[in-house]
Amino acid sequence: MTLLVIAEHDNASLKPATRHAVSAARRIGGDIHLLVAGNDCAPVAEAAARIDGVAKVLFVEAAHYADASPENLTALVTGIVSSYSHVLAASSSSGKSFMPRVAARLDVAQISEIVDVVAPDTFVRPIYAGNVLATVQSADVIKVVTVRATAFPDAGESESPAAIEKLPAAADCGKSRVLKRELTTSARHELGNARTVIAGGRGLGSRENFYALLEPLADKLGAALGATRAAVDAGYAPNDWQVGQTGKVVAPELYIAVGLSGAIQHLAGMRESQVIVAINKDPEAPIFQVADYGLVADLFDALPTLTAALE
After folding, report:
1. Domains in the chain, ordered, with CATH?
2. Cα–Cα distance measured from residue 59 to residue 170, given in angstroms and rounded to the nearest whole number
3. pLDDT tens for residues 33-62?
4. Pairing between strand 116-119 and 122-127?
5. Are 187 and 220 in contact (CB under 8 A)?
6. Going along the chain, which residue ranges are E strands?
7. Deepest in the core among 5, 63, 144, 255, taking most CB within 10 A?
8. What predicted TM-score, i.e. pTM, was given to this entire model?
């Protein structure tokens, strides 16, 4: 049994989610091949070869892979997948864009966002916004699987690098191209990889309050900032800070929830955090049901006091 994991990268460095997807593949068992497709990304292939558990790195370079367009990735993967039993990728924005296309081309059912492996053909995945865990079994010859990165550990480094095999590129589909990319830059930790996350909700009242109250605390703790969908929709925070079912799934060591009620859509994105602290003036807020520590208080009094105590 041989498994294919699709690496996620920016042509300069490997995304951490790839290591977690490899960890899931190791739970399934068998030889693991890691596909790196990009442009001028030899350092990424070398980093991929050092991941523990990877038997071989398949390296494809071409200009039309520079932006990891889902059309071109799909054509590449479906062209080489016939000899594999499983195809895995992280359940990130990239994985969600091309893996369903791969499944459709192969005429198989995608198994989305697994959090555990029971057997090579049986997986556990959350449904109903994470309130229920379903065990699903696939009879498809090729299993197309996306992995919730926070549910699996980092695969770690290997003492001896795997072999790197260069493959020819598939033809450019030419169906789309990136004209412009505007990236949000921040000195803070990236939300998906931060050890501490402070998330604000609509209870903060305004964009000005969001930054004035949360940023000083985040600076003291070295934390990333997150937000609920309601806060994002209200313009308090940018879209890439959204945590929840329609945002990012995080599992930091410490998650501080400020002024948010704890709707199930938000809980789906953070309930796996190791320690959850909630600050809300409503003692009946659902967030307290999942919190390890809860403070029933007005956030406009509690946050300045907490920030000052960290001096």
Report:
1. 2-166 (3.40.50.620), 191-309 (3.40.50.1220)
2. 12
3. 999 999 999 999 999 999 999 999 999 999
4. antiparallel
5. no
6. 2-6, 31-38, 54-61, 86-90, 110-114, 116-119, 122-127, 132-137, 143-147, 163-166, 196-200, 224-227, 254-258, 275-280, 293-296
7. 5
8. 0.85
